[in-house]
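Ticket #4471: structure output looks truncated?

Reporter: J.K.
Steps to reproduce: submitted the chain below (151 residues) through the standard prediction queue, then opened the result file.
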Amino acid sequence: MSPQTEVLLVDDNPADIALVQEAIAGSAHPCHTNSVMDGEEALAFLRKEGQYSETVRPDLVVLDLNLPKKDGCEVLAEMRASPVLMGIPVVIFSSSSARADIVRSYEMGANCYVSKPTTLKSFFLAVHAIEDFWFGMANLPNKESDGSANN
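Returned output as attached by the reporter:
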């Protein structure tokens, strides 16, 4: 098992990226994050194209819906259509709490949908909840499993 989980953060808001990275930095679960700020860049990263040819494929993608160039749903659709990318879990982490966005995300294959809280404390709690589940309880498909949860 790799010593740390690889996470790709896809968000066009640098402040949100910084907050997620700050929340994860204090984690009990070893984790490395990369971030990109639009949908086209996310797909290039995931496909290991251009400047991302040497990147490590993420174990988890945390994806905002409202992105420039290609929105989060387009990124998710392309991931789910790709035999290479379809198995990577995707957590939608969006400021939208609209039922239509939530339903559409799940219909398109999102593994989880979390609305971004508006207070700093709640934002950190949400990131820690995502982290505790995906890095502490769930068995991620790109990790070797010994039958127990990732620790």
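Triage note (M.O.): checked the attachment and the full token line is present. Strands lie at 5-10, 31-36, 60-63, 90-94, 112-115.
Status: closed, working as intended.
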